[in-house]
Write a structure and sequence with these properties.
There is one protein chain. By secondary structure, the chain is α+β, with helices and mostly antiparallel strands. Helix content is 46%, strand content 20%. The protein contains 13 helices and 20 strands. It has helices at 4-69, 84-95, 137-150, 202-218, 271-277, 285-291, 320-389, 396-427, 440-450, 452-458, 477-493, 543-547, 556-566; strands at 102-109, 116-121, 126-130, 163-166, 171-178, 191-200, 219-220, 223-224, 226-232, 238-242, 257-260, 300-302, 309-315, 436-438, 461-466, 473-475, 500-510, 513-522, 570-576, 580-589. The strands form 4 sheets. Strands 3-2-1-6-5-4-12 form a 7-stranded mixed beta sheet, with helices on both faces. Strands 14, 15, 16, 17, 18, 19 and 20 form a 7-stranded mixed beta sheet that branches. A hairpin with a 3-residue loop joins strand 19 (570-576) and strand 20 (580-589). Helix 7 packs antiparallel against helix 8, helix 8 (396-427) crosses helix 13 and helix 11 runs antiparallel to helix 13 (556-566). The chain starts with a helix and ends in a 12-residue tail after the last strand. The structure holds adenosine-5'-diphosphate. Adenosine-5'-diphosphate binds at residues 490-491, 494, 522, 524-527, 535, 540-542, 544-545, 552-558, 581.
């Protein structure tokens, strides 16, 4: 007892410590989940941008394959070599995986006065003059203007020698150069004399190439996790490809990442092609300063603003930020769920530890109490027996008195031992109840008859009120008798000086249930409100009982509760200190066996 405050202080300290740890863990979890989500978001963003760059690279690589496939070497030695383009076209059609990407190949000899367009015939390996197809009207005007601009101009801008994409057809244009004239002023520069025109198959780009690339770069085992879109035009109004069905109102704005498909590639993958296609003079130090580093220049330049092809990618369910926020919410819920579980288990642990602690204390008190209780009748019996044996008592009335004393104390001893044995059997679930319709009146009469000598000795007035039409109750007769006996015994023990005992039995409607209620009432000590929660616990003895040294084991009510509940009923108490107590047993009506007694009391 001396250490109890220190121990409870330690307990409170431990609980507080654990609560603090939980709160700190919660805060750390919150912070870490923030950092982890941020890192995850960055990783996703980087991987998304990498995929977009890969898409651009793959796309440009396909076009670059065309550029590389139609390379004669620059400058071409003479116009006569141009027919080799037909052979290159045939080779391309035979070997390329995406051979449908090219719809037609033309050689445009733009010499002033002799301008003519020749179609490359891959089957017969020759160039044959053709009329300009109608879809080239705008392109032709554009490149004629460019030709006029560059005709005989010595200062060559490298941009004009790269491949150009005119999306209006669409077609790739590549300048055709002839070696510099030895005799003229601008002898250091090759001459621009026309264009190689590679007409692209837009239906193939839209229907095969872009979907294939999108699938390769953004597809997963369960389909697309991103929405992918390729558009043309400065305001992205012309949709070339969408991973979603065109009917879906997928909103791409704002995209998680957006990239110009003709933008520069991150490495010198296209450099070889560029360098080879450049006029020899452009590689001198004189022009290098004007053109800038070759590495940064894209190979294919769109000729109009509409030629800007844009790849937009957005996370499928909302945006990447939404996805990361959702992930964070999920991980926080899981984390806090685990912490809550931990807190609940800790609380349960504390409650059960307290309970076990209290039970252990009660058991110690019980052992001490029972030993004391056993000793008193044993001592009385022993001394009475000694007096009788030694002949101290010899007269008839005295012997009778001793006999009664021994019988009373013996009974007390037996009832205590019985109670302990019964408790052991109820606790080990060995008790078997034989439930059948029981006449409660009969049980009450038997119990009162059994207690008659105690009632008589105590001069107790018994007020019995039993409903004459009381239905049978569903119960085990012996167990019910024990419970009632216990309640009557308690009423006598704690009845004080009132010398009054009330026993009532009636059939009551409790909500929708019709039940039998048996009440044992006294006008004695009563039970203080805080103790009402504990009196049905094993080994618990009230303050009044211990203060007045009223004998008992603290098992009676616990046993009564267990037994009544095993019979499908319940036991309730109404009590006020100094006014008395009323214990009521609620049992099922045997006439309505399917109705459950209300066990919520
Ligand atoms: P015991 O009577 O052996 O102490 P019980 O389990 O029967 O054990 O009762 C537990 C406690 O409930 C008692 O110690 C007493 O404080 C209180 N109690 C039980 N019945 C009454 C009653 N009729 N009037 C006042 N207190 C009671």
């Amino acid at each position: 007892m001396k250490f109890a405050p220190a121990r409870s202080g330690l307990r409170i300290g431990l609980v507080a410590g654990m609560a603090v740890i939980l709160v700190v863990l919660g805060l750390l979890q919150y912070r870490w989940s923030g950092q982890v989500s941020e890192a995850y978001r960055e990783r996703m963003q980087v991987s998304l941008e990498t995929s977009a760059a890969e898409f651009r690279q793959e796309f440009q690589r396909e076009l670059m394959r065309i550029c590389l496939a139609f390379r004669l070497g620059s400058p071409a030695p003479s116009k006569a070599d141009w027919k080799r383009y037909a052979q290159l076209y045939a080779d391309w059609a035979r070997t390329s995986l995406h051979n449908h990407l090219v719809a037609a190949v033309f050689v445009w000899d733009a010499a002033p006065g002799h301008s003519r367009l020749m179609a490359a015939d891959a089957a017969r390996i020759r160039l044959s003059p053709v009329e300009w197809p109608r879809e080239f009207t705008e392109s032709r005007k554009f490149f004629e203007a460019r030709l006029r601009q560059l005709w005989g101009v010595p200062n060559v801008d490298v941009r004009f020698f790269a491949w150009s994409l005119d999306e209006r057809v669409p077609a790739l244009f590549h300048p055709l150069l002839l070696p510099p004239d030895r005799d003229t002023q601008s002898s250091r520069y090759p001459k621009l004399v026309g264009y190689l025109v590679v007409e692209l198959n837009m239906a193939y780009i839209k229907g095969t190439l872009l979907p294939q690339l999108a699938k390769r770069c953004f597809g997963g085992p369960q389909g697309f996790i991103y929405r992918v879109q390729v558009t043309a035009g400065p305001d992205s109004s012309d949709i070339l490809y969408r991973s979603e069905p065109p009917s879906s109102a997928a909103n791409f704005y704002p995209p998680d990442t957006e990239i110009n498909l003709f933008g520069p590639l991150p490495h010198g993958a296209l450099r070889v092609a560029l360098e080879e296609d450049l006029p020899a003079a452009d590689q001198t130090t004189e022009t290098a300063g004007k053109t800038g580093p070759l590495r940064a220049r894209p190979l294919i330049l769109p000729v109009t603003e509409r030629g800007l092809w844009r790849l937009s990618v957005k996370y499928r369910n909302g945006s990447l930020d939404d996805a990361v926020a959702r992930l964070r919410r999920r991980s926080l819920t899981a984390g806090f769920g685990v912490l809550a579980l931990l807190a609940i288990s800790m609380a349960m642990l504390i409650v059960s530890a307290q309970r076990a602690h209290r039970l252990a204390r009660l058991q110690v008190e019980f052992t001490a109490g029972v030993s004391h209780e056993l000793r008193t009748p044993l001592a009385v019996i022993c001394s009475a027996a000694e007096n009788l044996a030694d002949g101290v008592v010899s007269a008839g009335p005295q012997i009778k008195e001793y006999g009664e004393l021994i019988r009373r104390e013996g009974r007390r001893l037996r009832s205590m031992v019985d109670e302990i044995l019964l408790f052991a059997s109820v606790q080990s679930q060995k008790a078997v109840y034989n439930l059948c319709p029981v006449d409660v009146r009969e049980v009450i009469d038997t119990v009162l008859a059994g207690a008659s000598s105690r009632l008589r000795e105590g001069g107790i007035t018994v007020e019995k009120s039993i409903d004459p039409a009381l239905p049978l109750a569903m119960a085990d007769k012996t167990a019910l008798g024990r419970c009632l006996d216990n309640l009557v015994d308690n009423a006598l023990k704690y009845g004080g000086n009132s010398r009054w005992l009330g026993v009532r039995a009636s059939s009551e409607s409790n909500g929708r249930v019709e039940e039998i209620q048996i009440t044992v009432e006294d006008r004695g000590l009563g039970i203080p409100e805080p103790e009402l929660d504990y009196i049905f616990e094993p080994f618990y003895r009230g303050s009044g009982a211990t203060a007045l040294q009223i004998h008992g084991t603290g098992l009676g009510l616990s046993l009564a509760k267990d037994m009544i509940e095993a019979m499908g009923g319940r036991i309730t108490v109404v009590s006020a200190p100094g006014e008395g107590s009323a214990f009521t047993i609620h049992l099922r009506n045997a006439d309505r066996p399917h109705e459950q007694a209300d066990t919520s009391g």
